[in-house]
Amino acid sequence: MAVDHANNQQLTTNYEIVNTLPALTSWIEKAKKAGRVAFDTETTSLNALQAELVGFSLCVEEGKACYVPLGHKKKGMRDEGLGDLFVTPNAPLPTSPVPNQLELAKTIALLKPLLEDESVLKIGQNIKYDILVLKQHNISISPIDDTMLLSYALHAGEHGHGMDELSQRYLGIKPISYDEVTGTGKNRLRFDEVEIEKAANYAAEDADITMRLWKFFKPQLPKEKLLTLYETIERPLVPVLTKMESIGIKVDLPQLAGLSKDFAARMAEYEREIYALAGREFNVASPKQLGEILFDEMKLEGGKKSDKSGAYSTDSGVLEDLAEQGHVLPEKILRWRELAKLKSTYTDSLANQINPKTGRVHTNFAMAIASTGRLSSNEPNLQNIPIRTAEGKKIRHTFVAEAGSLLLSADYSQIELRLLAHVADIPTLKNAFKNGDDIHAITASQMFGVPVSEVDSELRRRAKTINFGIIYGISAHGLSTRLGIPRTEAAQYIEKYFAQYSGIKSYMEECKEFARKNGYVETLFGRRCHLPSINDKNPARRQFSERAAINAPLQGTAADIIKRAMISCERKAVSEQCKMLLQVHDELVFEVKENAVEQAGKIIKNCMENAANISVPLTVEIGTGKNWGEAH
DNA sequence: ATCGCTTAG
DNA sequence: GTCCACTAAGCGATT
Q1: Residue A497's closest CA among A520, A474, A514?
Q2: CA-to-CA distance for A121 and A123, rounded, in angstroms?
Q3: Residues A275-295 pLDDT 10s
Q4: A336/C12 CA-to-C1' distance in Å
Q5: pTM for this entry
């Protein structure tokens, strides 16, 4: 039973195990009558697409909840997946070794009409997970509310949005922990091996807490003017993402395996060369050992120990400087590291994450992690697939379309700089975007006082770095390291930029002032990003928040815009012929039947370019190909 | 569990 | 004297 620490007493709760169909029917009737129900699934995996349903809980009013066990097994009765192949043909199968559980098919038949009833609100905590689990049983849950997303709308940047944290913070209830139920370490039980009584207390409490959190958060949204953000962006995005995640993207396994083998062989060759140059064998993957070799044993210059750990830094910047001085070892290390990264994080790992049922990889898009409103992607992360180097591009080429289809990539051009031009109201920048000019060349021309026709690649590169710096809440020191120039010179550039584009300085000051006064900044669509350290007495922490205060409205508005575009693409572009697969912050990836590509491209471009109505045009570039590398 | 490093936008 | 550009995820080494 949960302990209410705020009141230092046990909660008044009434949790019931439901194991008859009439009892379940009675709970469903209560939910229908109330018009809302908090709902939670219990499964065998945190990964929704690998999860098997074990049971579910319902809560109609605070303190009263039930758990419906479906798939609990005795320990040692795990279905190992290959088990069926080795079972004697006529032997009884261990379908439901623990008694007093409802039959899955009959239960689903009762539950489905409730979860699909448009007049009953289904409330979940991270309900995208439950939607994916029940999609396997042909249930599509609607309408929905999600307490994690309510918290995210209200408190992004302030704290996390997991149920335990929210419960303790806002309800003063410390819920039964998952570890407490399953145990930890090598003896950890799978949820279907947990005793029903124990599982029921845990699961029913989760549904109860979800209902309590909903009652606490939901009325706050209109008061805080966040209901529109939630109702028009966050909530409608949930079914869009569940669809993308369950479709997944095809990866060419033989090609990936070939790359792994190639990288392994080349790494081994580098290792031989590296040991010869170092004069001994060591662990190339250990920055600590590498630093000692380079700076203690070989006595190379420029070794700087960080004051925190006392170790030498050996990052790519340091190694590149050494390589430029003509040292061969740092160059070899850089090449080895590139391959090691690609092999461990991409070729080996992705191959293991191909779902055997679909032959595709299915990411999870996390909706409540990034403080700015962006999505993040995990297990696997498909938002950081390499593109910048030749070796890395080979990995992007293993993401392919099904035979008869093409991948279509649609990405916003310079969206954050366009948003800066709009929100800071900079006429020169706005005109450049309206005319379709080369924005970095225009900046270079204005900054360095030369005609656009005379801007060479070096000046353009500097202007590009400065433009990016501005979006990130520039500091003189940061710019000086990026451009490899003295700090004083970097400071002059920034001054020049502010003089040239007078609106920028005041925009930045307004962002910081708004943050200091309110504790958060806002996007064009009203999303808030909280900055708890904006008034910190520690200058480092405070300045960090000040830079975030400048960046978050731009990054966050871009996130709002692409989320709006995804929702409109789902309505206008997506079909059996055109499937939305991925979002990578300013890019959407679709898989489109070859004969539908041209039409789909037009609709997608239109949806994306019209996702916001601002004083500069938003432009979208479309590319297609048999693989993601070609489509880019 | 945290650090150091690298991948992406 | 201090920050050492914003937002993420993940790997292997180290503690």
Answers
A1: A474
A2: 6
A3: 999 999 999 999 999 999 999
A4: 14
A5: 0.95
